[in-house]
Each structure stands twice: as C-alpha cells, then as structure tokens.
Amino acid sequence: MANLLIIGAGGVGSVVAHKCAQAAKESGAFDKIVLASRTLARCRAIAGSVKERLGVDLEIAEVDADNVPQLCELIRRAKSDLVCNVALPYQDLHIMDACLECGANYLDTANYEPLDTAKFEYKWQWAYDDRFREAGLTALLGSGFDPGVTNVFAAWVVKHELDEVNVLDIIDCNAGNHGQAFATNFNPEINIREVTARGRYWEHGQWVETDPLSWSMDYDFPDGIGKKKCYLMYHEELESLALHLPGLVRARFWMTFSDSYINHLKVLGNVGMTRIDPVKFHGQEIVPIQFLAALLPDPASLGPLTKGRTCIGDRLEGLKDGSKKIFYIYNICDHEACYREVGSQAISYTTGVPAMIGAKMIAEGKWKKPGVWNMEQFDPDPFMHDLNIYGLPWKCVAVDEKN
Ligand code: NDP
Question: Ligand 1 pocket by C-beta < 6 Å: which residues?
C-alpha cells in the first residue's frame, strides 16, 4: 500500500523497523521498507535482526537528514510515498521540506526544536499546513506515545465517554530499572533538554510557568505498580490538546523520576554540564550537553538491562449528559517482554509501535487528509484497535471521585 522510508536507526528506529516489517507481513500495509540513517552500520544491524526475527528484507541507505538534496535523491530513488522520521527533532523541518519537494507524506514523533534553544513549540511545523494542503500530502505530528497515544487516548474518551473534558492530567511512569547510576531511556541530549526546561501547564486559557521539576505529586499506579512521585513538566502535546479538546480548563503533564536521576541531573546542571551553548575548551568549541551525551550509555544498550514496567496514561475529568465523570485510560508495558520481542526496552517500544501505527493509518488511507495534523484530529478508533493488535493493549476505567 505504501513504500515506506524510515529515517533514524536509533532505539526508536529499531522498533519502528521491526513493527513495520510485522505489519507488512501480516496486513500488507507497506510494500517496500527502506531504513536510512547517518550511520549505515546501525541500519545494517537492525535489518539483520528484522530478517532473523521476522524473515522480512529491509533495504538500507546512508543519509544526512539535514541535507535536503540528499534526502530528495533518496526519496526519489526509493520511490517512497511515506517518510517516518525517527531521527532527532532538529531534522524535522529538513525532512518536511524534502517530502514537499518529492511528493511524500510525512510523520514524526517529536516536534521541531532549534539546536540553540530548548523550545518545544508546534509553530514551525504548523506553518507548513498550507504547503502540505496545496500538495495534497498528509503530515502527522507526534505519533509516539507521549505525544501520540496520549493524544489519541484523550480523543477516544471524548468520542466515547465524555461530552467535554475539563481537566486533563497526562501521567508518564517508568517503573523500570536499568541498574545504571544515570542513563536516559531515549536520546540523552533531547531527554535532558526536555527535563531541565521550565515547567508549564494550561489553565483558564493561559500558560502558567513553574521552575524546572519544582512541583510534584504522588500517584498510585494500577496493577501493582503502586505509588510513585511524579514531577510536573511541559510536554508538547499540551499545546495541541489545549487547542483541540472541547471545554478544557486545565491540562498538565507529569513524569516519574527516581531520586537518583533527579540528584544526578541537579549536580550536572549545577556544574554546567547540561548547557546547550558552546564553550571554549582547549582552543576549540564544545557544547557541554553534547559532550555529556557522548559519555552516557546509549539508550539502545539498555534493552538487555532494563526490568520492570511502564504505565503511561491520561486522567480526564469532564461532563457526560451534564454529570461529572472521571476516566483513567492507560497502557502498561513490560521492559523485558519488549526486549524478548524486538531487542529493545519499553521506552523505545512504546514510541516505535505508535509510529508504525501512524504510518499504517496513512498507508491504509484511514488518516489521510492534506495538511499538517496532530493525532487527536483524526478518528481515534482504528488507531486504538491497532494498539491492541500490535503490542500496546490499553484499558479505560471509570474513577471514583474520591481517588
Ligand atoms: P537515538 O539517538 O537513539 O537515535 C537517533 C537516530 O537518528 C540515530 O541513529 C542517529 O544517527 C540518527 N540521526 C541523527 N541525526 C541524523 C542526521 N542528521 N541524519 C540522519 N540520521 C540522523 O534517539 P531515539 O531513537 O531515542 O529517539 C528518536 C526520536 O524519537 C527523537 O526525536 C525523540 O525525541 C523521539 N521520541 C519520542 C517519544 C514519544 O513518545 N513521542 C519518546 C522517545 C523518543 P547515529 O546513529 O549516526 O547517531
């Protein structure tokens, strides 16, 4: 149905490649799959694992995704009609430019960030809406778990359970343990930029700012995971959900961190190691966070080490037929089960599976509409159906108001 080009052969790219191969085999969603990245050896290793586990052949290619002519040459050569961008947020606009030039649909899992400012805003990508409409192409933004599934969860609850949502809390818990003193579960540079940014939430039609990691709450997670401390952070899906959810009064995002993670981050911040501006060192310029990222464990290497589960979901309060109702909708994912299936830990898995499903939605024409879209703007039902089929089963429960 679609010739797919996956760009980025990191932790997430590996899961996307495995799950797209599975979907190609089981549902015929994709005809040809090409995996391209900056380092060909990484593509080769992933293609080898896909062949061994699923018997599916992937083509591989080397590309610098910051180079639009190089991207165009690859898209044309591979005859790709859909590009799944799981490289880094810095590449988003270059890949969107190449898609427009070559007539390919586009999808990513993280919004564009300029290298020199840790800014999480959709404005740069939303500005492409007219061009994608005119070209008759679809661009789907943020098709990971959060953003991604968390947006679709909210859309599903609005479609099936509530007439309007007044209070939304997105709560991301990683109750897993990799045994390392300090490591990030996805790209270290992107992760640390996000976590050290100022907190921000939506209330009564405006954004309220908080100091980084200065607010926390305890949340009691289901299925034996139990109480964990969660920190308020800004997360990009709040921006689109604040715009698209009817009746929203307050929207916040929370994430769990261990005390050890917070302590390491504080010390690294205090000594300047999380700075994103260049500093002079022995006559040359280095960016401290990039140097730090080079020292930290590669998130893809955490697969065999990580045990435990993730639990990511939305708590939504709103009205149904005039009465107040509360729902909690969530997925629980087991790190070791992910590793057995595709050789990755659950953070890469929970991002890569929805990226594949988003691509499948476009390939099957279920979510195909010219323009630039966020996940909650499409019918949630086919996506929610595929989450159950492809490894991220979900539950929605009514919450007693006292909880
Ligand atoms: P990794 O660092 O593991 O992988 C990134 C890959 O992109 C690497 O293979 C890297 O190449 C490649 N790459 C980087 N720059 C270029 C370039 N200029 N041209 C070609 N390839 C390039 O990151 P993750 O897999 O952990 O994360 C991938 C994306 O997923 C990120 O954007 C991240 O923000 C997003 N994400 C989204 C989540 C969600 O729920 N929505 C959750 C987690 C992550 P090389 O191997 O040479 O370094």
Answer: 8-13, 37-39, 42, 63-66, 86-89, 91, 109-110, 144-148, 186-187, 190, 299-300, 347, 351
